[in-house]
Automatic annotation (TrEMBL):
Domain Glycoside hydrolase family 2 immunoglobulin-like beta-sandwich: 179-282
Sequence ranges assigned to domain Glycoside hydrolase family 2 catalytic in this UniProt record: 284-598
Organism taxonomic ancestry: Bacteria, Bacillati, Actinomycetota, Actinomycetes, Kitasatosporales
Stretches assigned to coiled coil: none
PROSITE patterns associated with the record: GLYCOSYL_HYDROL_F2_1
Keyword Hydrolase in record: yes
Name the UniProt record assigns to this protein: Beta-glucuronidase
Keyword Repeat applies: no
GO molecular function: beta-glucuronidase activity; carbohydrate binding
Keywords, sorted A to Z: Glycosidase, Hydrolase
Amino acid sequence: MLSPRTSPTRDIVSLDGLWRFALDTHAGAAPWTSRLLSPLEAPVPASYNDLFVDAEIRDHVGVVWYQREVRVPRGWAGERVVLRFGSVTHAAQVYADDRLVAEHTGGYTPFEADLTGIVHPGAEFRLTVGVDNRLTNETIPPGTVTTGPDGRERQSYLHDFYNYAGIARPVRLCSTPPTFVEDVTVVTGRDGAAGIVEYRAEVAGEAVDAIAVRVRAVDEAGRIVAEAHGPEGVLRIEDVTLWRPGAAYLYDLVVELVAEDETGATGAGEVVDSYTQPFGVRTVEVRGTEFLINGEPFYFTGFGKHEDTLVRGKGHDDAYLVHDFQLLQWTGANSFRTSHYPYAEEVLDFADRHGIVVIDETAAVGLNLGVMGGLTGQAPTPTFAPENFGGITGDVHAQHLRELIERDKNHPSVVMWCLANEPASNEDGAREYFEPLVELARKLDPTRPLTYAAVMFATPQNDQIGDLFDVLSINRYYGWYLFTGDLATAEQYLEKDLRGWVRRFGKPVMMSEYGADTQPGLHSVWDTPWSEEYQSDYLAMYHRVFDRISEFIGEHVWNFADFQTSAGIHRVDGNKKGVFTRDRKPKTAAFALRGRWHGLGGRKPGQAAGD
Ligand code: BDP
């Protein structure tokens, strides 16, 4: 799905701002049919949970309503009118006046409603959105809704971040011409010093047969460097400037739809639609135990992150976007994983422009009932049994994967798809569950490697899916959940474990999570868990191990910043494994990482530039 962009033929009106807001319990029946009678207003984009000093809202399970009036620009006569949501978490029903115009499930991917003919240029309409935050074993991520003795519904889930909900990303009203560019795909390669750009443009709408497609690639100085005709083809950019980690370079692919002229000659008339797709020329490849970007070994340094800030929850915020990337660069991080869901498109656009490498993850987190058994001592429930996640969950997961790849396929920053976080890959049924998903991902995008983040219980001995993937991403907490406070023992177990993955699969291995909860300001001369020194020593121990394993291709610390979780005895106002606090102040470990990562410069320890 294309990102909304203005062009000579396309306009955008932002619908961000304050909307009327009400819980469904206060909204009356069919709240879309009239003005929402509520004293509350909620900002878009933002999660709604932390805005109000009201536990009923924060803990609400079910639907909430957002509403506002929208005036369609009067200059849009004859245009298509499209309403586009960056995301609604987790399910949306959208009404234009009394009419249902869209429904979407999946809280982290965009969707559109075509309002052409339903709303009218110059006129106002009432836009009402129902937002459902419920998670079940038919949603990704999954969860369970139960009814308590007081008759109130309660939501539980197996993932370790707060179930923020709402309209957390920008909402826009967009115009396109009646004949329009519906999709663009760009795949890049190299031929010596030249860049090879395969493109495909999909055209939809009226009189498509009378339309010709022409494209041109434009460099950052505005020079046209290649041109072609036709809905698909190959462009050659001589002396190409590559997109490199830490040194981004973007070209624009300008796609134009050209009408017939008055003699009926196709492609000789006026430009009826124009869309500009930025792209970077770079290659990604796994060869043996190496991860190559532009043919050069790349060593990942960085973090698993979250979209999580005070008050706005998972709401997208450009100020935090800029500041977080500043902190990434300050620590010497060259990459991050979009744990545990697709992030806002604005984040990926920014990564493209600033040369930060991204591992792009679906929202499939918590497909692991064994974790519950581990924490509670109860007998584990089989994760992939038909009554759990062996049924419809896989189809929903596939749909999410499809939407992720369709959205993010053109981002040069995205170098790998991560299909799930900590699935029960050690359990029976995991292979049957993941095989079709791997096949689908490879069909949709044959160019990017695939990974999944392996849970502690999945060992080199019992994991059932590692051979299906290209890179093994390992989450481990030796020295935290196991051998707490005993880094010497933790070090031995960690090394044995990682070497086991290398030996069994012969593929590149990276650490996708390692971290220790840390209370800022707590200091100790001993190996005291929760102290700032322990976090630094814990990370240093992992780094010693990584540096001894030549097949190792990267390290992503868990987590970039402290983040909110559901309440529980394992969490003190959230997860504190951040190297930065929730308000982005560095803990001691941030300085240690900065020393190490700037020294590495994106290469394996001991590997010189150009090796
Ligand atoms: C891992 C999960 C991550 C958690 C982390 C932790 O992948 O989401 O936040 O553990 O416990 O199992 O801190």
